Every structure is written in structure tokens, then in C-alpha cells.
Amino acid sequence: MVALALWSFAFLKVENGSEADIYSIYHWFVHLLDGVPLIQPVAAIILIVVQAVVLNNLINKNQLIVFRTFVPSLIYIVLMSSIPELLHFNPGLIGNLLFILMLDRLFSTYRDDNSNSKIFDAGLYLGLASTVQFSFLMLLIFGWLSLVILRPFAWRDMTILTIGALVPYSFIATYYYAFRDLQSLIPHFVLFDSLDAYQHLYIPIHYSPLLIALGGLILIAFKPVFLEWRIGVVKVKKRMSALALFSGLAVLFTVLDLGFYIALAIPLSVYLSIYFINTQKKLLAEVLFLLLIISIVYLHIVTL
To answer: Which of 35, 70, 164, 247 could pair with 120 as two cysteines, CB 3.0-4.6 Å apart?
Structure first.
């Protein structure tokens, strides 16, 4: 219901993802959804709800939050519905689902002596995400470093992860080779196609309420997140450390490619949920969440 309410603005101002790069699988998704009225917003809503459920199960299974709860799925839906420019089918929607699956496989490798298949799966999910937007492949750095955090250092693990990430490109290269069109393979490997967006980047004044509300919540959540990490058992600490690494690299890579900032909804859903669940000042938490919702609705209205 929350997703439908916030995405109702997408039906008032339909934006199709027709600007898709023809050298990506995302281009195929867009054309698959073309021709049916309003199909892209509906597909986007379904993807976000599915991601929220999968992320919530990941958090509960890996005990990233002490209590079993559905709060992370709610926070994720709100964050993924907060930016008017993202109220349409976009590469980040597909990428985030694959990132969540990648995190799930990586977290499950902790203290597992027979985890080669899990590491390969994690790399495969990352490789598939990069076929949607090639710059996502930079998170291979996260995969390598998270394996160092979660497991004893082993070059074999990193090699398996890399092989998994390259598997989709072996199929792509085989396809172009079979049709004698290898020169069309090069455009698949463009890293920073959105880098020029920063030349015209500015934040309108009507974004201020949302930035203040979200920034304030992040600052308030820092202390309970740190306390949760400090008192957690070793396996939870390692997983939380890997998630913090994911957050840091997503912020860093956003400087290079704007497509990465949508991935921040994944760790922020965990951090904000920890605050809302653990705070003793429940009334304050409810007021802050309400202000966040109001700022999002206000932003959607003024940008119609």
C-alpha cells in the first residue's frame, strides 16, 4: 500500500526508460515492456516490493537486526520511492535486486569451508548487474574486500568471484563472435557514461525538506548502529562491517557514476531500521518518520 501510494505520482507523470543504452540488457527489458500503457511503473512497483521482501529476509536470516521485523522492507520501499526522477523503470531497480542477492551469497560464506559455489553465485549476480549498467562491475572491489572481512584471505576465493562476474560476458562475446560482429562488443564496456551529468548537476531548493529529514535521520541513527555493531557477536560484526564497506564504496563510486546512489537504499534500510526499532523515544521516531513521508510527498507534488 505504501509503494502504491508513493508511486501514484508515477502514473500522473509517466516517464518511460526509453533512453536505455542499446548495448545493455536493460535496453532489452525496456523494449520488452514497451507498447503497454503504464506497464513500466507497474513493473517498477513489483520489482521494488520483491526487493523489499528479499532484503528483509536477508536481514532477518543474517541477524543484522536483533529482532525479527518487517521495518527494513518498509524503509526500503520509502527510500526507493523518494526521488521523483526515479519514479520510472530504471537500471538501478534491476541492479539493486542483484546486489541484494549478491550480499546474501557473500554473507552465507562466513565460516563455510565449502563455499565455492556461493562465491561463484555472488560473482555471477554482480556480473549480471553489470550487463545492465557496466559501471556496476566496480563493486567487484567490494566483493574482494568483503571476502577478506568474512573469511580467511585466499586468492582462490577472489579468483572464483571474478570468474563468476565474467561469465555473462563470455556469453555476450560468444554471441557477437557467432554473428561476426565483434566490433559491437566494445560499447558494452563503457564505465562512466553518466560522468558528464555532473557538468549540469544542481540540487533544486525544493529538495531541501527531504535532504534535511533524511540527513537528520542518518545522523541520529549513527549511534544506535554503532552500539548494535559493538555488542553483536563476531559473525554479525563481520557482516555489518561488510555492509558498511558496501555503503562506503557506493558513496565513493557515486562520484564517478550517478547510477550508484540508488544502491545506498540497501544499507540505509538497515541503519534506519536499527534506530527505529531500538530507540526508547518511540514518539520522536514516529514524528521523524512522518516528517520523512511528508517531505517525500511534498517533493513529488512540486515536481509534477
So the answer is: 164
